Amino acid sequence: MAVTIAHRCIHARDIHETLAFYTGLLGLTTRENSQFPDKGIMFSRDNIDSPDPVIADYINALVTEKLPTLYAMPAVKQFDIAGIFMAVPGTESTGPWIDTFLWNYPPYANHEAYEEVNHVGFARLEFLVDDFEGTRERLREAGARFISEEIVIPAGVLPDGPVGPTRAMSLRDPNNIVIVLIEA
What we know:
Layout: E1 7-11, H1 15-25, E2 29-30, E3 43-44, H2 53-70, E4 80-87, E5 97-105, E6 124-129, H3 132-141, E7 145-146, E8 151-153, E9 166-172, E10 178-183
Parallel strand pairs: 1-5, 6-10
Antiparallel strand pairs: 2-4, 3-4, 4-5, 7-9, 8-9, 9-10
């Protein structure tokens, strides 16, 4: 049996700020959406009026009926949500993706991410970066909130990481989610 991780999801306070952080500073790309290529947004209240009525009906049902059931949320008759898929360059059509959603209505139950990562649920995102120094400097210049200094991880500690010793450091994204950068 083959299993692959397809998506990770971030609920954003500001989808444009989040998109700028992940695409502009970390180099992720957005997955083109053939239904709404001009907006780059997967779906939102603004584009529910797709030229294709089948798509418009599906998106409406998706958000008002299917997603609440799938994700254990209360059912809603109205919504105000926007979403977009981001991926590592070259994997836009295959994933894995980071889904980024902005829920205006129904409102978030809590507007803050966990302060510490020792909570049940989503804890952090880790990225292998081939230009550790350049990525760190780009983030520093943009005012990123680093929460650790650089550390050296000995060889063999990361089961899916580089073979030799590598560097890592962590910061917070615009939504207060912990991001770990690991030198590839």
